[in-house]
Design goal:
The chain has 254 residues and is mostly beta strands. The protein folds into two domains: 2-35 and 131-241, Thrombin, subunit H; 39-128 and 243-251, Thrombin, subunit H. Helices cover 13% and strands 34% of the residues. The strands form two sheets. It has a six-stranded antiparallel barrel with strand order 9-10-11-14-13-12. The longest helix is centred in the first third of the chain and has 14 residues, at 2-15. Residues 21-252 form the Peptidase S1 domain. Residues 1-20 form the signal peptide. GO terms for molecular function: serine-type endopeptidase activity. This is Peptidase S1 domain-containing protein.
Length: 254
């Protein structure tokens, strides 16, 4: 099934990149339960306290997020199957093991990718399902869906939010952000006046065909926002494709 879905994704992008960006997704809003079934809530418990971030289920045993999310963790609580931070329907899985991409640079945040290994396998349901890994390079003009447990510029951060977003060129990103990004990163901006604020780290950039067919293209690494949160300021994502071989090896995905 994974191999077939990857082939479908490749064909769709080849024929029409627009078809694989946000089928059935409105401009922005609060996600309904099961709309993004791979979305995870991660609590990192360390000697420095409790750290919160987003993540994405990539198979029954592994959740992908940022390296900065998993560093120094003593243990994790990973919540799945919900679109609200507080919900009686949440499935919580525990973990202590994590891996950081070997090329991760804590100064530049190059390859800011980490993977959490869960204690026990997740049982897939209507509301819990792994995302597929991107099998093609992220196009320069990609449009997709940004998912975040953080807030919009004018909203609260108690629910899973989503928005239609687009990648922008290195040149435009430098104009907005003030720095030139490495090849492992990409600038993502909202297609509307809304902007994700705090709490986006670790959450995915998705290509959405349906609730059942979603591909993770990138991972929210850090915000370029200075001062007031606006849609002009981009979110910086770690590209998944350059790290694909490492992710597949760690998670045992063929």
């Amino acid at each position: 099934m994974k191999r077939l879905s990857a082939f479908v994704f490749f064909v769709v992008l080849t024929l029409d990149p627009g078809l694989a960006k946000n089928n059935g997704v409105s401009t922005y809003g609060i996600a309904t339960k099961g709309q993004f079934p791979s979305s995870a809530i991660i609590y990192n418990y360390s000697t420095r306290g409790t750290h919160f971030c987003g993540g994405t289920l990539i198979n029954e045993f592994y959740v992908i997020t940022t390296a900065t999310c998993v560093q120094d963790a003593l243990r994790f609580n990973v919540s799945l199957g919900t679109s609200a931070l507080i919900s009686a329907d949440t499935v919580t899985v525990f973990a202590v093991h994590y891996m950081v991409h070997p090329d991760f640079d804590p100064q530049t945040l190059d390859y800011n990718i980490g993977i959490i290994q869960l204690f026990q396998p997740v049982i897939y349901t209507e509301y819990i399902r792994a995302a597929y890994l991107a099998t093609v390079k992220l196009p320069d003009d990609f449009s997709g869906v940004g998912v975040s447990w953080g807030s919009f510029s004018d909203g609260s951060g108690i629910s899973l939010n989503y928005a239609n977003v687009s990648t922008i060129s290195k040149e435009e990103c430098k104009m907005r952000y003030g720095k030139l990004l490495s090849d492992s990163m990409v600038c993502v901006v909202s297609n509307d006046d809304e902007a994700f604020c705090k709490g986006s780290t670790g959450s995915p950039l998705l290509s959405v065909l349906s609730n059942e067919h979603q591909w993770i293209m990138g991972i929210a690494s850090f915000s370029a926002t200075i001062g007031t949160c606006t849609s002009y300021n981009p979110l910086i994502y770690a590209r998944l494709f350059p790290a694909l071989d490492w992710v597949k090896e760690v998670a045992g995905i063929e």
